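Take a look at this chain, tokens included, and explain the fold to me:
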Amino acid sequence: MKPADVRLVLIHGYNISDGGESTTGRLYEWAEKYGFTDIHEFKYGRFDLIKVAWNSKKVARDLADLIGDKPTVVIAHSHGNVIADLAATEFKAPIIYHIGINAALSVNADFAQQVRKMDNYFTPGDRVVTFSKWWRRLRGPLAWIRPNYWGEAGRKGIKITDENKDQVANFNMQDSPSGLLPIDGHSEFFKYRSLRDWAPELFSMALYKLEKIQPLSEVEQRADLFNLSLKLGEKALAEKYVVTFAEFKNGRQLKYYFRKNGVVVSRPVDLIKYWLEIGGEYDKGYFTV
């Protein structure tokens, strides 16, 4: 895909009163230089810790409404990554490429199926996301937030596993490649001297990866609709869609979505049993809605 084929959304972090003008807003002109034309700055206002707990999901819904059905790249800073991930997981926003800068996400974060690539730019000296990890452990009003949030991905990177190795990439900005200016801290990326080095690096990588991303196939579109029906727990779609275990990487995606809805499954027979209970049909390896 090309930059002109997608929407680009810039999302600022928490405790920002300038709408991201001094952080993600500084990437707008860089995005134009690299060929993006449909660019939006998503400004959700200044969040304190209470709003983080209670308003994030509502703001994520607003983001999903802004994105609509157009394939989207997001570049998010700090808590903006939580907003982006909620939009993709909870509201099925078609975010195909997520670029995180000092993300307040868990090091064990996983991402929605439609997110083809996730680039995580982190700095080992980021103490703000360390605080976010301890805030997450307090739970309380944050108990509803799924395990992705909050955490030290912006300081330690995201753990690479067999499941996400083709999806997630970490970039340590303190141990900079190719002679780039080493940077540290939570928002150092957005200082003008840092931007001169790192903005071209970020956008060059984005264009390289975006070119390799293909539009959703028919199978993946059906799979996404199937995931939505699982979330609703009912026969939510008027038409019939067929999905096989093979299309879900031997059932891994099925297990994740069942688990997310409070159902513990470990064997194909468990998947079949639960699917039948919520009104689905199963025949010779096919799940239908």
User: Anything to note?
Assistant: Residues 192-212 form the longest helix (21 residues). The longest strand covers residues 95-101. Residues 139-144, 228-253, 255-266 have pLDDT under 50 and may be disordered.
